[in-house]
Amino acid sequence: MDTYTAIFGGVSAFRYHDWTMTIKTIKTRFAPSPTGYLHLGNVRTALFNALWSRHWGGQFLLRIEDTDQERSRSEYVAALLEDLRWLGLEWQEGPEVGGPQAPYAQSERAAIYAQYYKLLETTDQAYPCFCTPVELALSRKLQLAAGRPPRYAGTCARLSEAERQARRARGLQPTLRFRVPMAQTVEFTDRVRGPQRFASADIGDFVIRRADDTPQFFFANAVDDALMEVTQVLRGEDHLTNTPRQLLLLQALGLPAPEYGHLALIVGSDGGPLSKREGDLSLRELRAAGYLPEALLNYLARLGHSYERDSWMDPAELAAGFAPERLGRAPARYDAAQLLHWQSEAVRHTHPERLWDWMRLAIHARVPLACQEEFIATVRPNVRFPSDAGFWAERLFGAVLTATPESQAVIFQAGPGFFTHALAAYAEQGAAYQPLVEDLRRRTGLKGKALFMPLRAALTGETHGPELARVLALLSPERIRQRLQACC
Ligand code: GLU
Fold first, then answer.
1. Which single residue of 24, 59, 146, 487 has CA 20 to 30 Å from 183?
2. What EC identifiers does the entry list (predicted)?
3. Confidence band (pLDDT; 50, 70, 90) for 24?
4. What are phi and psi of 122, to 5 degrees?
């Protein structure tokens, strides 16, 4: 195993940047909130984290961030476990797998968080805040109107114990706010975006526990990363401004910070947000549409990350070639044509048995079992989705053949005489391709396209398609005769 030297991104004021550690393994994680199905954006985040840990023979952890009780659903948890497994992104620590820091769903970690809240409260680094949502909204409005960035005004920052009791007695349920240290500069090196600097004065005291006692994202996310010994975090750049808050929290708690890298978001081909029409698709939708997991892996691993090689890579190769230095800072543009390209490549690289399972529903039992292998070998270059396989199954094994207008034109142009010759040649030579076309060439004096095209059109009803030699081998003698006869 390689030895990995990680310079932890930290807060220079607290000398975190001095933490140069040599560690044997790295631990990355994916921490989704189960408020919807996985889609290309968050799957890519999971993938980069998984590739990074696999590259170093490290560990990939999965944590369910279900602190938003209203929006989190257990069916989304089940779906995301299934979707990640379908994609081959197995986690070594997390739900259903277990690990030393179980449980891995934040909704089950309240007792753990309670200890850290207590620590912050007893050291006066957090205080109860009784401001109501209405009061907070008003304060924001006033600050914005005065041209100032909105941040907590500090109303409850210095309440005496008596004042707190009085508010409690009025039935007010406080939130818990973190007291952001004044006049500090939070610096860290983002693994993707380079050196970052934030003034703590710009942050404002923030809520770490909601009035209903559930933990706020900043808190649970940072505490869990530390307790679960996560060393590297790649996440969306929408979290970049959360990072200084989290570093301050970890510093206050005396917990280690992971190294953060913030990924540029995926945008549509026009640079705008992804839409349902373009790229904003759930993994389930893509799977139902027939995308193969390896196609998505090859596509997503290159979306905002460059490899030395442009050719097809299996999951182990994707991990071997992954490097955070190769992550781009510019927004990654969704490109439907690229996704289709990798889908075709995936079909080309998939084992025939798996391909059969993938296509079998779409071919409606049209392909006899004995022809299964040959059918796959024949249509593979012309298949991108199961429906394409269904199309060719129908073309090759269906009783009725409806030729496309282009094929009809080709058949008409060749004329009935051509097909009479073709029937005769077939009667003489059988379906062996070379002898058959040689014979037909002798009889008609035609060669090249003029010879192959009418044959293809008559036998498949199409002017493009799988190799003719393979088509001939797959069609039954009866079909061949019927189809040639029909053109005479
Ligand atoms: N639960 C957060 C999200 O889904 C995780 C953010 C992070 O990766 O730190 O956005």
1. 146
2. 6.1.1.17
3. low
4. -70, -20
- What residue owns the CA closest to ligand 1's atom 2? 32
Is 276 within any annotated ligand binding site?
yes
Same domain, 426 and 470: yes
Q: Which residues pair with 206 in a beta bridge?
A: 178
Domains held by the chain: number: 3
Among the candidates 332, 350, 368, a domain finishes at 350
Q: Measured in angstroms, how far is the CA atom of residue 40 from the centroid of ligand 1? A: 15
Nearest 10 degrees: CA dihedral of 111, 112, 118, 120? -150
Percent of the chain with pLDDT over 90: 90
Which pLDDT belongs to residue 452? 96
Domain identity same for 132 and 39: no
Helix (H, G, I), strand (E, B) or coil at 33: coil
What are the helix (H) ranges across 350-467? 352-359, 372-379, 386-397, 405-429, 433-444, 449-460
Q: Which residues contact 377 (CB under 8 A, 6 or more apart)?
A: 352, 470
Domain identity same for 327 and 285: yes
Task: Report the candidate in 217, 476, 192, 131 with the shortest Cα–Cα distance to residue 331.
Answer: 192
Assigned domain for 105 exists:
no
Ligand 1 binding pocket, CB closer than 6 Å: 31-33, 65, 221, 235, 239
Q: How far is CA 249 from the centre of its chain?
A: 30
Instruction: Among 235, 241, 260, name the best residue to mutate to test ligand 1's pocket (greatest count of ligand atoms within 8 A of Cβ).
Output: 235
- pLDDT tens-place string over residues 267-289: 998 888 888 777 788 999 999 99
Specify the length of the chain in residues.
488
- Contact between 255 and 223 under an 8 Å Cβ cutoff? The reply is yes
Flag whether pLDDT at 422 surpasses 70: yes
Ligand 1 atom nearest to CA at 234: 8
Asked if residue 193 and residue 145 are part of one domain, the reply reads yes
Report yes or no on 454 lying in a domain.
yes
Is 61 inside a domain boundary? yes
CA distance 178 to 206: 5
Provide the 10 A C-beta neighbour count for residue 96.
Answer: 10
pLDDT digits (tens, 9 = 90+) for 315-328: 999 999 999 999 99
Domain boundary among 234, 263, 292: 263
Whether the model pTM is above 0.70: yes
Same domain as 64, residue 13: yes
Residues 135, 345: Cα–Cα separation, whole Å: 57
Residue 164, pLDDT > 80, answer yes
- The enclosing domain of 322 has a CATH number of 3.40.50.620
Ligand 1 atom nearest 235 alpha carbon = 8
Ligand 1 pocket test target in 239, 243, 250, 265 with most atoms within 8 Å of CB: 239
Which protein residue's CA is at the shortest distance from atom 3 of ligand 1? 32
